[in-house]
Structures are given as structure tokens and as C-alpha cells.
Design a protein that fits this description.
Strand content: 15-25%
Distance between the termini: 13 Å
Number of domains: 1
Helix content: 40-55%
Largest sheet: 5 strands, parallel
Mean pLDDT: 94
CATH superfamily: Response regulator
CATH architecture: 3-Layer(aba) Sandwich
Number of helices: 5
Number of strands: 5
CATH topology: Rossmann fold
Strand order of the largest sheet: 2-1-3-4-5
């Protein structure tokens, strides 16, 4: 199963993502902001990153940009998990390096499907 980094400033969302994905056999590391996630990424690799967009300290879009500059994250799949649904936000995220988009609120099956589909393309 995959090693996944989930980044969201809402504790309940982090815990939900972790719970759903760990029940599927994945190992999930959770971080509450982009700064923490980037520090983690500098010392560890994962198979997939799931990030919110709107977070304090460093937005998800800034995090994507920084991750793509790290050699071990240049090709790591990144999914955005956010309440944002504007087409321009999605395009900005894709341009920054995001591979997919999951709309909040989500049902667990949708998250599992998005993760499995994304990981199958690696």
C-alpha cells in the first residue's frame, strides 16, 4: 500500500482522511499546514500528497510549487482536497503541478476512488 502525506488546517478533515485511507491499508502522515508539510517532505518521501488549498502560513498552491522543486517530489502525484470549485483555481493548481481535485465535502468512497486512480497512474 502507499505512503500518503495529507495536509489540511482542519483537524477533523485530517483525521477523516487518515482514518479512511488507513482502513484501506495506506500509511498516512498528517500535517496541519504547508510549512510543516514542506519540512517533512525535505526529509521523507511519500507516494502521494493530498493537500487543502486554503491554509495558514503556506497555501496548498505554494506547497505544490515548493514540492515540485524538490527532486524526490518532482513526479509525486498531488491531489487537492478543498472546498474551492472555481475553474480558475483548478487550472492554477494544475499549472502548479496538481494531478487531481477532490471537492469537500466528500464521501469516503470518492476519496478512495481518487487515491486509487491517481496511484494506478504512477
Amino acid at each position: 500500500m502507499a505512503k500518503i502525506l495529507a495536509v489540511d488546517d482542519m483537524r477533523s478533515m485530517r483525521e477523516l482522511v487518515k482514518s479512511v485511507l488507513e482502513k484501506q491499508g495506506h500509511t498516512v502522515t498528517i500535517m496541519d499546514d504547508g510549512d510543516s508539510a514542506l519540512s517533512f517532505a525535505r526529509t521523507a518521501s511519500v507516494d502521494l500528497v493530498i493537500s487543502d488549498i486554503n491554509m495558514p502560513k503556506m497555501t496548498g498552491l505554494e506547497l505544490i510549487t515548493e514540492l515540485r522543486n524538490l527532486p524526490n517530489y518532482a513526479n509525486t502525484p498531488i491531489l487537492m482536497l478543498t472546498t474551492e470549485d472555481a475553474a480558475e483555481k483548478k487550472q492554477t493548481a494544475r499549472s502548479a503541478g496538481a494531478n487531481g481535485w477532490i471537492q469537500k465535502p466528500f464521501n469516503p468512497e470518492r476519496l478512495i476512488s481518487a487515491v486509487n486512480t491517481t496511484l494506478s497512474k504512477v
